[in-house]
Automatic annotation (TrEMBL):
The keyword Signal does not apply. InterPro entries: ADH-like_C (IPR013149), ADH-like_N (IPR013154), ER (IPR020843), GroES-like_sf (IPR011032), NAD(P)-bd_dom_sf (IPR036291), QOR-like (IPR047618), Quin_OxRdtase/zeta-crystal_CS (IPR002364). Residues 12-322 form the Enoyl reductase (ER) domain. It comes from Andreprevotia lacus DSM 23236. Keywords: NADP, Oxidoreductase. GO terms for molecular function: mRNA 3'-UTR AU-rich region binding; NADPH binding; quinone reductase (NADPH) activity; zinc ion binding. It comes from the Bacteria. Pfam families: ADH_N, ADH_zinc_N. This is NADPH2:quinone reductase. GO terms for cellular component: cytosol.
């Protein structure tokens, strides 16, 4: 069987993405062959492409996709041909028409969830799950700050936090995204011209928030620290605007004995059971309407470079798919 995929020979801008065709071997012991319906496009893919997070070259891109099992290797008992499955995380290579994956890193897609929604949002949904429920447990009555509230993780995290009973402050970068985020935020702050920390303090009667979820990085780091209540936690889980510059740990003491963590999904899904539980919790939230998962952009697989350009130019909202 031959597969189409997007690969890079060197790190660089979106022009380094190439469409290639290759022969696929049969799945080995413990593996499944997936005919992919769609692959998700995430900011981490741009980090892998640019070299911010270097990958082995030549290599593929993409860490999330969904489709149907076409064949299984020896020793695979959890899946059979015809099963709908998805995966998120692990080695890049999801930008492809077919892919062989370790069965241990694949999860079943339940009947109420479309393959497109699974492919476009599983990574973000599982990220929101560990952020809100395990990195810092959001509880009813809390007020939380979530940056990039119109983005892929932001949309899911804001909706889910509200379903958990929290008041949600979301930040965005322009008026169009502010209108979108207003659907699931109690307060929306446009950080392109508003003082985030001042608005947060005003909304919380001067107290600040117990947690800030920051996937933006350099552009919002100072505002995140200044928005926290004493002993609050900054959860820095992404670098959409670039990495946070070096700083002295003493600033955490000066601003209120703050906590700082830099978590990753991989460390929260180390075991098979953790992976299954995280995915199931997200799919359940979608099924019961706590999270409305929407696909906002679709590109042909061959147009992956344009998808990256649009993502990096902040022209996208929510989730983006590549269709093989």
């Amino acid at each position: 069987m031959r597969a189409l995929s997007i690969r890079i020979q060197q790190h660089g801008d979106p022009s380094v993405l190439e469409v290639t065709e290759s022969e696929l071997p049969s799945p080995a012991v413990g593996e499944v062959l997936i005919r992919q319906s769609a692959a998700g496009v995430n900011f981490i893919d741009t980090y892998h492409r640019s070299g911010l997070y270097p990958i082995a070259l030549p290599g593929g891109l993409g860490v999330e996709a969904a489709g149907v099992v076409e064949a299984i290797g020896a020793g695979v008992h959890e899946f059979k041909p015809g099963d709908r499955v998805a995966y998120a995380g692990g080695a890049p290579g999801a930008y492809a028409s077919h892919r062989i994956m370790p069965a241990a890193r694949v999860v079943p897609v339940p009947a109420p969830i479309s393959e497109e929604v699974a492919a476009a949002t599983l990574l973000r949904g599982m990220t929101a799950q560990y952020l809100l429920k395990r990195t810092f447990k959001v509880e009813s009555g809390m007020t939380v700050l979530i940056h990039a509230a119109a983005g892929g993780v932001g949309q899911i995290a804001c909706q889910w936090a509200r379903a958990l009973g929290a008041r949600v402050i979301g930040t965005v970068g322009n008026a169009d995204k502010a209108a979108l985020a207003a659907r699931w935020c109690d307060l929306v702050i446009d950080y392109s011209h508003e003082d985030v920390a001042a608005q947060v303090r005003a909304f919380t009667a001067g107290r600040g928030v117990p947690v800030v979820y920051d996937g933006v990085g350099a552009a919002t780091f100072e505002a995140s620290l200044d928005s926290l209540a004493p002993r609050g936690m900054l959860v820095s889980f992404g670098n959409a605007s670039g990495p946070v510059p070096p700083f002295s740990p003493g600033i955490l003491a000066q601003k209120g004995s703050l906590f700082l963590t830099r978590p990753t999904l991989g460390h929260y899904t180390l075991t098979r059971q953790e992976l299954i539980d995280t995915a199931e919790d997200y799919f359940t939230a979608v099924s019961r309407g706590d999270v409305i998962a929407e696909v906002h952009q679709r590109y042909a697989l061959a147009d992956a470079a344009q998808a990256h350009r649009d993502l990096e130019a902040r022209k996208t909202t929510g989730s983006t798919l590549l269709i093989p």
